[in-house]
Amino acid sequence: MNSALLFDFADITSAGMAFDTLEQLGYDPVLHEGGRLHIHMEGNDLISALEIMQVHGGRLIQEAAIDANAYTDTAYSLDGITIPAHIVNEDWNEEL
Fold this sequence. Notes:
Blueprint: E1 2-8, H1 12-24, E2 30-32, E3 36-41, H2 46-55, E4 59-66, H3 68-76
Antiparallel strand pairs: 1-3, 1-4, 2-3
Helix pairs in contact: 1-2
């Protein structure tokens, strides 16, 4: 199970510096209003992320578990692909 971590910073400048550092190291941070930043921990090093946040004055305020299916559903939007019934045809001519 993967998780998302939400951090709170004293100001937007500190959050922005943490964002830049995390992005350079291959994390996928998301900056929010009010000096908040969150990252998804999917195969990334948790200790490094926590150290980066602490160096920039971040404080962990929430951790939430993320279901692995949420990533694939979002990335591939499988529920959003519609296939019209007239395209699905089991009567293909196999000689072609």
